[in-house]
Design a protein that fits this description.
about 170 residues; about 70% helix; about 0% strand
């Protein structure tokens, strides 16, 4: 056990906020990060502490799409659809893919082994499709409702929700 009086060992995690944020963004998004190959990125286990920040960035970009569409006078449902599309493009549908896999596995598998086999299958099934449709309808309804709110309210809610949801990943993985 490392007490505070002894010097840190080489195995002690170093806090490198910029590199860890870049690693978190690289894992959770498809954003073009030109210098990602030139940085000495930390292991993902270290960068996970910056998942909420990466989520906040994702939420900020998504909210910018919704706010921008509102300012251009785009109908609220279309503005919501555009914001959803931006979110999916930013993340590469990472979370949607996971949701579909889990829904297919638990919907179609009777045993643990079969569920895991279904979840590893890259094809989407009926349960995955239904889960995606329902969550997109729900998110579109939320975004459409937000479309009438003040821009700072939209920003705060989407940034907060995206940061919070990525913080849950840390809790589940640790």
């Amino acid at each position: 056990m490392n007490d505070m009086s002894s010097p840190p060992s080489e195995n002690t995690w170093k806090i490198r906020p910029f590199a860890e944020t870049i690693a978190a963004l690289h894992f959770l998004t498809r954003l073009p990060i030109p210098f990602v190959r030139t940085l000495d990125l930390p292991p993902l286990a270290e960068a996970m502490r910056f998942f909420p920040l990466a989520g906040a960035i994702i939420g900020a970009i998504t909210s910018a799409a919704l706010i921008g569409a509102n300012m251009l006078g785009v109908p609220s449902l279309l503005a919501a659809a555009l914001a959803l599309a931006v979110g999916v493009l930013i993340t590469g549908a990472l979370h949607e893919d996971g949701l579909a896999d889990v829904a297919d596995g638990f919907g179609g598998g009777r045993t643990r082994e079969v569920r895991l086999e279904i979840m590893r299958d890259s094809r989407i099934g009926t349960y995955g499709t239904i889960a995606l449709c329902l969550t997109f309808i729900a998110r579109a309804a939320i975004y459409e409702t937000l479309a009438g709110a003040q821009p700072l309210t939209i920003l705060a809610l989407l940034v907060g929700a995206a940061a919070f949801s990525r913080s849950l990943i840390i809790d589940l993985l640790w």
